[in-house]
Fold these 2 entries.
Entry 1:
Amino acid sequence: MMSIKRRSSVDCVKKRLRTENGRSISTIENLSNECFYEIFDYLAGCEIYEAFSNLNFRFQQILRSCSLAYKIISNESTSYEMFTKSYRQIMRHHQSQILSIHIDVNDSQYLTASLFIVNSQYIRLESLVFYTIEADPLYRLLQNLRELPRLFSLKIDTQSSLTLKQINYAYQLAFALPKLNSFEFDTGIHDNRKVRLLSISTPKQMSGITRLFMGQSCSFQEVYPFLTYTPKLRRLILAYVVDDQLDAEEENVEYTVPIILKNLTHLVIERCETKFDALRLHLERIRLPELRFFRCKIDYIPDFHGVTRFDADQWASLIEKHFPQLKICHLTYPEWNFNSNGCEILEGNIQLNRFYAPFWVQRQWILNIVVNKRNIVVSIYPYKKQWYELTLDDIDNNLTLRLMLKNQLYSDDFLTFFRKIVGIREIGYLEIDYITIEKLIQILNLLPKLIALKISSLSTTQAKSLSNDELEILKKISKENQITKIYLEQMNHIEEICFLLTYCPQMTYLKIGTIGSLDIDLFLRIILLKISDHPLQFLSFAMPLADDETVKQLQTMIDFEKLLFDYTISRHMTDIILKRKYNR
């Protein structure tokens, strides 16, 4: 991208003027040209032209300056009248200053007004984004773009309006653009016919594209020839990969010869419906010696044995043999329409347990399960620093299974299903949305090895109406649970914190997102009195309006009332952090 060195707007010097009564004022006209260039970086080109083109001669000169680059942006909030009026003027007088054109609205009027006048005069144009283009205007646009010396990025969304044959021709035109680095072509086409989009390229047809997004459904047989056009690829994103449609005898021998993409570091498959054996075959055929990042979402298809495509041993073997340099692996498997009677991914707990083999643990790629109302999503991804961690030096293997419960009603059927999840492995980390005390007791009773707990919101309104059986279970949980870290995102009443402190007697770390409208002094006083004989060592709570003076006042209160000894209190961003030593 063309860079123009500018001073920060905060460094701009404003000249002071005075009114007749001596009052000091500032005027925008006294800002330097450099300040205006800095300001205009944050504005769309049509907005700049609409606001400043008719002010005076100085602004007309600024608008014509080669230091000003216009970014033509149109979205749902842009009026068609303003866009066409200002855009036409910019087209007429400032073609050589246009840096980008992004038309993000599904309206043919905008495209008609902007598409067909792109020509060789656009010497600084680097980025184009268009939506809802039909075939003929798209062809004319791509043919005109050949003359542009700096067109590096092109994004096109046709909204499913093109046929496979038209898509084929559009790709050929795009691959012929001499300076193009990034090409995103989202067609929304999901066609399972036996059609091969492109033939293998010749040396003269090779493109310099380094980033490619293919937005139509395709098999690897169809992807393969595209890769022969783009040997310099660094990032490849496939929207939808399906099983090969050509029979083995129909596949030409040229499609079975391995291809080497020595620069490709990122491969993403946003939706994969192909069988694992076919996926493995093609990933072995496409040599990727520098692959560092791989993400794949494996679609669930009933009666398709989709769960076999999430086999830990098969993936480990593939990665270890062909991608030993891989640093980031993110595999996702969503299953829909599960119930208490069946969930394919959970039927064979041994299969998921294989993700705890040394291959996965050593790479710090962890198993994550998210249970929503309508689906369950199992995924593998690199371990990230959590809210209770300061460094990544030591990862507790007990926390490598992360379970998240989202938007649940916690019915009896759900609890039956939940027991199947618990059977996979001892769960060390649990994250849940809003939940009542009654339901939390039932969940915790099934998780005796839980170490870290994150709750969006906890209701204690039913605490006084717990049955004798529930109270007995609660006592048992209090004696046996191993929870040491809790994060309550939204505190509604102080009783919620008191409940957690009482029934999680091993807790050493407590983080609270917000304390609501409760007085801060009262809140802290109650907590500190409660932990006088409790092992809690770290307390953090959000106070967006707190400053250093707030911290001093809290420290004075703690010292005066002798609520704590041997402690520190500080502020980090919007959080108040209190640490203390605890000796039994």
Entry 2:
Amino acid sequence: MCGRFALSAPQAELMPHLGLDEAPQFAARYNITPTQHNLVVRHSWQQAAGGGEVVAVK
């Protein structure tokens, strides 16, 4: 397995589930590789519950 994954859920559906009020727009992607930049939700133990930030990582 090479670690590829897909992101097909609508953004409006993901935002409340991840505890986010805002995030960069993104489109569905069906063949995401580990070498591509991807949006992730980063939470810190210092942040209030549900208060994450969206960052692009590789």
